[in-house]
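Hey,
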Amino acid sequence: MIIRSAMRSALSGTVALAACLLVVLPPPAPAAAHPGTDPVVRAPGPSAVPSPAPAAPAAPADGSLLYRAGTQSRPARGAAAPPGDVSALSWLVADAGTGDVLAAHDAHRKLPPASTLKTLFAITTLPHLPEHARHTVTESELADIGPGSSLVGVVPGLSYEVADLWRGVFLSSGNDAVRALAEMNGGWDATIAQMREKARLLGALDTHVVSPDGYDAPGQVTSAYDLAVFGRTGLASPEFVRYSSTVDAQFPGDGGTFGILNTNRLLSGADGVTPYPGLIGVKNGYTSEAGNTLIAAARRGGRTLLVTVMNPQWGGGHAVYEEARSLLDWAFDTGNRFTPVGSLRPPAPPSVKAGPTTAPIVEAVRAEPARDPEEKGPGTLLPAALTGSAALAALTLFLVRRGSRRRDKRGQSG
């Protein structure tokens, strides 16, 4: 009787101690969601990694000022306003490093892009095509090039390196080179779909791609804002910068090579246009519907500025370069004495909502966190306490039995 009573007391004490510990001790901290299950969208950059596609933003990502008509700028007191003699239907100047828009005029006005759309083509397909890969061009690839297109001189039947074709795109604005690269990228229609998706991911919602080379097509539009987004994205790629800043090169032809010169006169200084100091590209264009268009970037004093100019209304064919020059000069002179009127940064990813798609995240949060064997946190205290309670009960039982045996022995000898 004495033994059974002692055992019951010990076990009751153990259970009571465990219950108290369960009440007093905090629960283990939940595990963080596993990187492979938690959707993350990264902003573009030099080491950008393909990410799950976010939904299109429901509201403008760059701020309401850029959706207002006319010129928008907020220079500090004492700083000059943007030049008032810029005749372009739409323009924008921004800091390429921060994405801050210094000033703009009708930034989201939808206009034909001409060959400046080749910047979107480049940032979409450059990562997919190794520069030393080769491609033999066929007649069918070049069959649908629009009349009057700019050409670099791609010859059917010849084999070209991807790097040669990109120089044909950036320097000569060759629609024939675009056709060859698009074929390597999966075809014309596949490339259009990829470009549309790329624009959407970047928040360039004014752009609708119909022809990847920028050739005039019904419904094909972009904006000064979107072109600046494409240019800024391209500047994060060393390959893009290398091609867009090349002044001249040799291009393969029948029986040898021939020289090509960058048609961006603000870079090359051709036709009497004075080169802009520190210019690093990016791309110019012209069609009868778009007029002259330009994306230009320049570095000075560790700062990179980006300007887009669409369809100047006076001044001749060189006006697009001179108006870009005027805007860059103003922006460099203004420095940091301004309040941004918008941003070129991509939209933030949408918030994660509860539902079937979040099941992997919920499972990861509920999982028991892995702990270091040496860690003495709450997760190890409860098992240790239970183990100690069991040991205490065993010790109590041992002492009770030992005392009982001694009493029995005394009873037998007396």
